[in-house]
Amino acid sequence: MFLARPLRVELRGAVYHVIARGNERKAIFRDDLDREVYLERLAQCRSRFQFRVLGYCLMNNHVHLALERGPVALSRSMLALQSFYVQRFNFRHKRVGHLFQGRYKAFLVQDERYLFALLRYIHLNPVRARLVDRPEAYRWSSDRCYREGKRLPWLDVDVALGKLALKREEAVSVYRRLMASRDEQTYEDVATYGSAVKGDRQFAERALVTVGEARRLPSAWTPESLAESVARAAGLSLEHLKQPGKSMKESRARLTAAYLGRRDAGFSIARMAKCFGREESTFNRGVRRLEDLINRDESIRADVERIGSHLRRRNTGIHD
Description:
Blueprint: E1 15-21, H1 32-49, E2 52-58, E3 62-68, H2 74-92, E4 105-109, H3 111-123, H4 125-128, H5 143-148, H6 157-161, H7 168-180, E5 192-193, E6 197-198, H8 201-209, H9 223-233, H10 238-242, H11 248-265, H12 269-276, H13 280-296, H14 298-315
Parallel strand pairs: 4-6
Antiparallel strand pairs: 1-3, 1-4, 2-3, 5-6
């Protein structure tokens, strides 16, 4: 069965959240030297392809990057970064085969509204993973550079700090407050469209039109109506899914609705969790597990895509 590649929306000067994960969740960094090699190559690619590095976080088995695209396609820049690193990693550790899990993910982010939600998400990754208690305690992210106002030759902190205040000292102070605040909008709650764009609906529509994909944005769905349609496709009812049942069939239907709701309608996981009366953090972990299954298991992927196609047909008035 043919499955389309993830949608890529390439715009010069746009901000992207890039995620690269290790194959089978395995480590892509075994020690600090590996991390240093990766950052050195990132700096080289920045210079060669003229993009900006706004933020980064190197975890054990995945990477988060915030990049502002330059004149060269992001896909070309990432190929140069990833392929070089894989060669060095395999040579150094005497291994062969794939290191990363398929192609990297890249989300176009509406930077004027959500850049700091993205940076906050990236810099809090080690805290959520319980590697450290505070983001500034993690060595392998750009948080310290923002927090201390450091200028590294290849890290473009001034781009983001300049949006906070005219004076560097004041901008650094605002950044620290943003990182400490619990009232800021989370990156997870920013709507996602077409599995490719994070931002407001109008921003997503304008971006997706550039690649002929505006049709991916359904207009008629609400979280409840989408969840009800997924439940019906699973031979269940929405009221049934709202009950405390924990069977595999019920759980899969709820998570599928959340996954498709986020991917195709831009609903946050928090909104879908509320629709089913579920606790957000637990529900979010369940969606991540489903994403892993979709990446690994073709039958599950095909089943989810079948339901997704059914939802799009219903939304456009085309019925089986």
